Amino acid sequence: MANENESIDIQRLIGDVAGQHRFLLRPEDPAIALVTMNELILKHSLEAVHKQIRATITEFHASLKKAEERAGSMLAEQVKESAAQIRESLHGEIHIAGLKAREYVHMVNEAHRRSSLIRWGSAGIAGGVLLMGAGMWLESFVKWRF
To answer: I need a labelling partner for 125 at 20 to 30 A (CA). Which of 25, 36, 91, 144 fits?
Structure first.
């Protein structure tokens, strides 16, 4: 296709017509005027089409930008919702872990308390037996000596 600044080469056109159809045209023939008129109409039509294409491309870019903005805001909203769900899930899991930790601490305290009670109870019984033994020995010692 010829560039906008280029015109049809009339002499080449006359030569091509003469070669193919054995018909000689002159530059002043009405057929050449029709070719020039068709060229001008075609250029005008192409300019209108180009203008419409440029407008359509501009509209497309604007629509694309709006779609990107909408997609970005939708993505941001989904990220916020996902973060909220993760946060709620973590809070629940932390609460459950806290309850389990309390239960473990209680079990450890109970185990220490039992062993402590057994130890001190044994020490008390042993001390009582020793005191009783010492008392009996002292009684026999006092009876035997006096």
So the answer is: 144
